[in-house]
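Subject: for your reference before the review

Hello V.,

The reviewers asked for a structural picture of the protein, and I figured it would be easier to keep everything in one thread rather than splitting it across files. Below is the amino acid sequence we used in the manuscript, unchanged from the supplementary table.
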Amino acid sequence: MATTETPATALSIGEVAEQTGLSVHALRFYEREGLLVGPVRRTSGGRRRYSSLDVDWLLICVKLRESGMPLADLRQFAGLVRQGPGNEPERLHLLETHRQRVDDRIQALEECRSVITWKVGVYADHLARGAADGLWEPRA
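And here is what came back from the structure prediction:
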């Protein structure tokens, strides 16, 4: 992946950590695990230097991971992107499958929220009446 980054615009691992919310340790892990779409450039002293494209990719990775994408799927997605054009249907399939998992999780959480909201109402009603009748109590 070609980039127009210059040494003056390249970012240190600390700067990338700050911009992405990933720790320095996590950035090194992402690199070791093949989760980046290109090799991380190094200075003559061996220090990592990232481009703005690296940061953009990492920001996508953060959201995919936060939404529960398994590392294996993220690794596969990154590998497909590294291969270049021609595998877009496979990339789309990975993303659609992940979106469905996220949609399912959102639905499950909405059902949980509904139960919690109902229970909050039950407790609020009982507290407003000054009575605890009908609320669960531990058995002696």
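For the response letter, the relevant points are probably these. The chain has five helices and two strands. The first strand starts at residue 41 and ends at 42.

Happy to draft the paragraph if you're swamped.

O.
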